[in-house]
Amino acid sequence: MLDRLNGCYTRLLRIAHNVDWTAHARNSFLYGNRTIPPLAHTIAKRTLRFAGHAFRAKDQLVPDIMMFEPRPTASKLSYLKTLCHLTGATKEELPGLMSDRDNWKVVVARSTMSAR
């Protein structure tokens, strides 16, 4: 899914730069030598930033819903599994990481930079 999203974004950049596909321009030209991150990295970064923000809202119901893991047969992918996949942390480590705002900023920056 993310590969398709990145592909659509690359085609959009080709149109914006007025580069035909027959020109065989490299993606480094389209993305400006990494000045523009791929769309999947931007989505991952914003997802992680929102997760940390929502988890620290203890007076709301959101932290409980975020840490909920459905039955194994209900769904193969949950929000908790997505966060674990993006950060490389286990579901037991996530609450400790997200509760400390400064530490979570480091985790978000590290996980999105390693994806580039």
- Tally the helices: what do you get? 7
Provide the residue-averaged pLDDT. Answer: 84
Approximate shape:
elongated
Largest sheet: none
Which spans have pLDDT < 50 for at least 5 consecutive residues? Answer: none
What kind of assembly state do the chains in view correspond to?
Answer: single chain
β-strand amount: under 5%
What is the rounded Rg? 17 Å
Instruction: For the record, give the distance between the C-alpha atoms at the N and C termini, rounded to a whole number.
Output: 17 Å
What fraction, in percent, of the residue positions are helical? Answer: 55-70%
Total strand segments: 0
Number of domains: 2
Q: What structural class results from the helix and strand content?
A: mainly alpha
H/E series: HHHHHHH
What does this structure look like?
The structure is a single chain. The chain is mostly helical and 116 residues long. It has 2 domains: 1-36, no CATH class; 41-115, no CATH class. Helix content is 61%, strand content 0%. Helix 3 packs antiparallel against helix 7 (101-115).
